[in-house]
């Protein structure tokens, strides 16, 4: 895969099923117009497909319970997403909403007469509600720590609200914007259940609860007090289900997300999955119930497994996703459909249990090899090696993932494929701190950044370098976010092992991160503790004088998760010492540049990465 091949990747996204109607959203980068395109496609039981809508970007499709209509979000040009409906037997989609900041994913009422969704409502005079530009807006008065969010911006002057829309386009604001709302569902035809911060967010909190409110508007009432975070509620078989974690205080990091259940009145909630061994992947979508249990996706050693959890709990049966990554799924009757990504496929639509898979346009993929070994303390290490064509020995790039409570997976990874196509063997470690190996594995780095996680990544690198097809004399290290932190740390403490480094959207200094990141006010304390000396000891910037290898500092201008100052401080520290260093800043991008940034910027970044490694690893 070459940088320009981004436009050849057609990625299936959300999926919906009702009877023999299976609809999948697809997305393809358009480099020429610097946007993403894709409509809804119908997938037939024999695996053939046909376009079903023809919008610029259509997604979040939901088929009505009576099977007659499909609701979805449509983005036209640079407009905001709006809710549309179209009959399942064809016709022109009809727009139901016209909201200034767009609408969230719609959810059908049980009687198929209305849809609920979340939409941010701007204060008068802000965000395009007048013809004046932002420079004429009044100042923002900020009194809370949770005042902004990456890829959103300031949040206090555009709070999300629940909206209900009828099929004739009549929109009702159900909540008043005095508190955040998310993840709406229908408790019955007249009552909504939704997620809100603990005590409706009267003060900053990492905990959330379930509330109810009449679908026509009214006062919110507490339904379930969460044990930690609460998300994705739904009703099935006379019971209420949701996903949630358990923690106290700010100890919310590296917690496995589990399946919970209670009667519909919210009483006597119980956790149905083991807190240590079962970690649900929310990015794969809303859990759903069928006749035998609850379908959801579990993170397990780099696999994203579609499992059916029995109604009385347990680890569940794996339906799809062994040595693969289930990105989305849907169920109706006996039909289960999943979008499955594999090392050589960005995504296929699979009719689970039938062997039928539908692939969309992609690119040839380089071989992926699983790696296993042991750290110096005997702890098992796990990851992958993506190999170029030819016998080698190949120069090596180790790419550390972000999070840290995330993972490299069995799914298609465009970055590793680009680097392998260019001739580099790519090492993908999942060190302690990663998700999918048990909650204790994820929490092993709390208060210990730069210790066991470093041991793990270097131990897996040693496994890769023991192969005859890799070159131990030509090794580079790179990563983004926590991976950027690790790149900076390794460059300072183990720089002799690498020829060059590419540190992207990194955390370099916990002191300023605490006051500038959208999550800094709790994240730094939760992972590093509150002692300033301990935070400095775990900050790569503290050891900048030890970095002597060529070092790329890469960042997005509008990154509020790891703000730009994290890059600037490292760049200045290295430049003043005469280290061979460069800083690359992407205008208008946030923390998610590599995954969902403007296609042209993603291509330009790939080109810059390859130029960097060609300069230092191929010479």
TrEMBL record:
Q: Enumerate the Pfam families for this protein.
A: PD40 (PF07676), Peptidase_S9 (PF00326)
Locate the Peptidase S9 prolyl oligopeptidase catalytic domain: which residues?
410-618
Molecular function in Gene Ontology = aminopeptidase activity
**Keyword tags:** Aminopeptidase, Hydrolase, Protease, Serine protease
Q: What is this protein called?
A: Dipeptidyl aminopeptidase
Q: What species is given as this protein's source? A: Lentzea pudingi
């Amino acid at each position: 895969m070459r940088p320009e091949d981004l436009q050849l990747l057609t990625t299936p996204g959300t999926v919906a099923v009702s009877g023999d109607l299976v609809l999948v959203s697809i997305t393809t980068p358009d480099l020429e117009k610097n946007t993403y395109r894709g409509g809804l496609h119908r997938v037939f039981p024999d695996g053939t497909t046909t376009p079903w809508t023809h919008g610029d970007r259509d997604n979040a499709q939901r088929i009505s319970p009576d099977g007659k209509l499909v609701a979805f979000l449509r983005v036209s040009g640079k407009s905001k997403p709006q809710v549309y409906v179209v009959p399942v037997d064809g016709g022109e989609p009809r727009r139901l909403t016209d909201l200034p900041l767009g609408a969230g994913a719609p959810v059908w009422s049980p009687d198929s007469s209305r849809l609920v969704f979340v939409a941010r409502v701007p204060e008068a005079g802000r965000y395009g509600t007048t013809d004046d530009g932002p420079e004429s807006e009044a100042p923002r008065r900020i009194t809370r720590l949770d005042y902004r969010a990456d890829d959103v911006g300031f949040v206090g002057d555009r709070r999300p609200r629940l909206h209900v829309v009828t099929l004739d386009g009549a929109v009702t604001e159900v909540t008043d914007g005095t508190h955040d709302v998310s993840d709406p569902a229908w408790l019955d035809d007249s009552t909504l259940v939704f997620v809100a911060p603990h005590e409706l967010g009267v003060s900053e909190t990492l905990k959330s609860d379930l509330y109810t409110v009449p679908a026509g508007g009214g006062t919110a009432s507490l339904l379930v007090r969460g044990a930690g975070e609460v998300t994705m509620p739904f009703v099935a078989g006379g019971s209420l289900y949701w996903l949630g974690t358990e923690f106290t205080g700010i100890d919310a990091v590296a917690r496995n997300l589990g399946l919970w259940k209670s009667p519909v009145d919210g009483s006597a909630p119980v956790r149905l999955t083991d807190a240590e061994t079962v970690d649900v992947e929310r990015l794969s979508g809303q859990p759903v119930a069928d006749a035998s249990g609850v379908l959801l996706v579990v993170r397990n050693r780099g696999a994203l497994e579609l499992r059916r959890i029995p109604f009385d709990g347990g680890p569940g049966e794996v339906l799809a996703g062994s040595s693969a990554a289930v990105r989305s799924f849907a169920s109706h009757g006996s039909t289960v459909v999943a979008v499955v990504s594999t090392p050589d496929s960005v995504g296929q639509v699979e009719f689970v249990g039938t062997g039928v898979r539908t692939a969309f346009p992609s690119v040839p993929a380089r071989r992926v090899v699983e790696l296993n070994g042991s750290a110096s303390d005997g702890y098992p290490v796990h990851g992958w090696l993506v190999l170029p064509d030819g016998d080698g020995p190949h120069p090596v790039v180790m790419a550390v993932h972000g999070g840290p409570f995330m993972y490299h997976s069995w799914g298609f990874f465009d970055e590793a494929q680009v680097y392998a196509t260019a001739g580099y063997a790519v090492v993908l470690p999942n060190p302690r701190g990663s998700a999918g190996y048990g909650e204790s594995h994820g929490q092993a780095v709390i208060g210990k950044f730069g210790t066991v996680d470093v041991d793990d990544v270097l131990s897996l690198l040693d496994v890769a370098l023991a192969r005859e097809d890799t070159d131990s004399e030509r090794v580079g290290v790179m990563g983004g976010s926590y991976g950027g932190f690790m790149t900076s740390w390794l460059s300072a403490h183990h720089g002799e092992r690498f020829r060059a480094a590419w540190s992207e959207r990194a955390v370099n200094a916990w002191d300023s991160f605490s006051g500038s990141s959208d999550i800094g006010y709790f994240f730094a304390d939760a992972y590093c503790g509150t002692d300033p000396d301990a935070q400095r000891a775990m900050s790569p910037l503290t050891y900048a004088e030890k970095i002597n290898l060529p070092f790329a500092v890469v960042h997005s201008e509008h990154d509020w998760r790891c703000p730009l100052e994290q890059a600037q401080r490292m760049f200045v520290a290295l430049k003043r010492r005469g280290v061979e260093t460069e800083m690359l800043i992407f205008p208008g991008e946030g923390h998610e540049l590599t995954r969902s940034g403007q296609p042209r910027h993603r291509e330009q970044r790939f080109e810059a990465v390859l130029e960097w490694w060609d300069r230092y690893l191929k010479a």
